[in-house]
Write a structure and sequence with these properties.
Distance between the termini: 34 Å
Largest sheet: 4 strands, parallel
Shape: globular
Radius of gyration: 12 Å
Strand content: 15-25%
Number of strands: 8
Number of helices: 0
Low-confidence stretches: none
Order of helices and strands: EEEEEEEE
Length: about 110
């Protein structure tokens, strides 16, 4: 699914987790806000996850560690906070990891 550069706003809906056969999710360069939904961990066939350059906030959900097939992860240029979850070490197939470039908040 390629929806980058579309001026999308608001939160990523939890229903994204229903797209279990999805292999690519490109939502970068939008105005998405709120937390990355924990349901993102249901996308176990996902190989590419690009959410960079949005206004996403809160912590990276631990469920991201469920994405065993993930090869590319890009979350930089958001307002993410908290520690990077230890479950990220489960992503042993990452070939192009760019997890986070956090901005310091407050």
């Amino acid at each position: 699914m390629n929806l980058y550069n579309n001026k999308l706003s608001d939160a990523i809906p939890a229903s994204i987790g229903n797209l279990t056969n999805l292999q690519t999710l490109n939502l970068y360069n939008n105005d998405l806000s709120g937390a990355i939904p924990t349901e993102i961990g249901n996308l176990t066939n996902l190989q590419v996850l690009n959410l960079f350059n949005n206004d996403l906030s809160d912590a990276i959900p631990a469920s991201i560690g469920n994405l065993a097939n993930l090869q590319t992860l890009s979350l930089f240029d958001n307002d993410l906070s908290g520690a990077i979850p230890t479950e990220i070490s489960n992503l042993t197939n990452l070939t192009n990891p760019k997890p986070v470039r956090q901005r310091v908040v407050g």
